[in-house]
Amino acid sequence: MSTLLQALKPAFQAQQNWIEQRTSAWNALEKSGLPGLKDEEWKYTSLQNLDSQNFQVIKNTTIQVPGLEILNRVDAYTIILVNGELSSHQLPDTIQVSRLSAAPESIQNSFWNAPSLAQQDPLTQLNVAVSDDPIVLRLPAGKSLDKPVHLVHLLDASQKQVFSASRLLVHVEKNARLSLIESFHTFGSLSSFSNNFTQALLEQDAHLSYYKIQQDTGDAHHVGTTEVVHLGKSTSHSVTISLQGTLIRNNFHLIFKAPHSEGHMYGLYMSGGEQHIDNHTIADHAVPHCFSNELYKGILDGSSTGVFNGKIFVRQDAQKTNAFQSNKNVLLSQDAKINTKPQLEIFADDVKCSHGATTGQLDESALFYMRARGIGEEQAKALLMQAFANDILEKVEFDDLRALLLEAIEKRLLK
Amino acid sequence: MLKINNLQASVDGKQILKGLHLEVKAGEVHAIMGPNGAGKSTLASVLAGREDYEITGGSVDFLGKELLELSPEDRAREGVFLAFQYPVEIPGVSTINFMKTAVNEVRKYRGLDPLDAPSFLRLMKEKMELVEIDQSLLKRSLNEGFSGGEKKRNEIFQMAMLEPKLAVLDETDSGLDIDALRIVANGVNKLKTSENAVIVVTHYQRLLDYIVPDFVHVLYNGRIVKTGPKELALELEEKGYDWIKAENVTV
Fold first, then answer.
1. pLDDT value of position B251
2. What angle do CA B147, B151, B152 make, to 5 degrees?
3. Domain-embedded: residue A300
4. A371 vs B82: CB contact, 8 Å cut-off?
5. CB within 8 Å of A137: residues ≥ 6 apart
6. Closest Cβ–Cβ partner in B50, B73, B87 for A375
7. Interface check B87 vs A, CB under 8 A
8. Residue A110 shares a structural domain with residue A225
9. Residue A283 located in a structural domain
10. Ranges under pLDDT 70 in chain B
11. How confident is the model at residue A65, as a pLDDT?
């Protein structure tokens, strides 16, 4: 058995609830082991280095948060998780937060029966087996909040290499609107590995805006899955921004179960040094008249690698589907590398689908034009890259969050 | 101000400039005319520092400095401005943001503090009026979707903002109708002082009706083969370039 699974087995065995689900997930995981490069879904992302490290589950920590900028600057209701454990939250009464075990049975059932494309994924199985009692966020029918909810994942890697798994279930009821931010932060000089699973269920006329922000400091590893399920006719808007981290794998699934639903997926990744950032997305159209729109952009420097894999499924009944996908990359160095793969599987005949992927270097004529106006080469490159990234940043609906990200990107570009 | 001495340049191994001499003093307007392929645009590009060209000989003294040894940005900061024949479209960067960066980079080089937002806006307003350009255009992505006339007007606006000592206008008249030509030329004339100089590179005489040169040079086969007063431009317009070519075959 892999080092990682061996180290985490006690965490699985210590779990008190959902034994049946956890056991079946763990057994499947134990049987398959961690995925290797021969696994089609993990062809370009190796977990070997991760597996050789001595990650541990560390509970009951108290962390001194050293001036987390995003908390100071982004106006939001917060939920703080430390090493995967719920630490504190500041939420208005409008939204309900609880543990799954304490939620009404109907809610429990709706989550265990929720459509998912992640059941076969070994890292999701890992999450199901070892994560604590899931956190349930529920926004009742007709409600909306004046601010986003910000789920802050803190990992304390100051003493030991830390592993954390957390699971979040979000229920946006009829005609309710929710904005949710998840951000990830590691403290300490050792490495961390966060393994997260977020499922959001959207009822009739609901709307979800979802942000996943990775500004991990230090040696952070992350494998996480987000699934947005359009159970009723509903809309979603999601932005995944990955700026830091040693190894990142984001799975993002858009699942359409009700006609006339609409989902937008945006992503921006910037990598340098030895970083590895992998975005695997799926838009699954099982019903007619839905619209999915996807744009992911990447800026890769140093000897970093990126992966983009975008699947669009249009199943037989999903006539009149509109599905668009685009992935654009800029390579800033000789050694940076991107593996991009669109994958369309269309079984309906009356659909509009398109996909495109581009990878290029900086536009030399644009650079010269800027330099001829007195703008230095580095500054000119930064301006061009900022413009490139801006297509995604402008999809961030909150001015404070957008400004923070813009600054982080500027700083990065002008290193 | 500018002394070009025996300048030789090639692109892809092909010799374009073959020993070009030119002297420009403050307060002067020079026109460089010549048939297609004579090396006019090469000269403009070489002065601005485009890296596609290889300098194979000669020197360019600009206010006591060897221009050819400076990076494109440092040439601009020293006061050389090239109005592009084909201004580049840059999606996602507004002209305002672009100019703010450029103006402040130039100021930094000259040891000045960056302009604050109100001062920058004031400067911009003033220059916008000068070149008759609309603010809505400047808020858009640089040159993206601009008409030919709008692009050239934007070049002159940038020139007004940067207040260069030497402006090189590379075929600024190409693709302009007569009204746009007049507006662009007016802008250039308003910016003209006894302290700065302009080199107008053009194939046709019509721009010189509006920007009146002190000297007209004929560039042919990589060298300046004839220099005269503004009337030379009219003569060229009337007779074409064939007599120049014929003259230079016999020489």
1. 47
2. 120
3. no
4. no
5. A79, A95, A96, A97, A149, A168, A169, A170, A171, A178, A180
6. B73
7. yes
8. yes
9. no
10. 249-251
11. 65
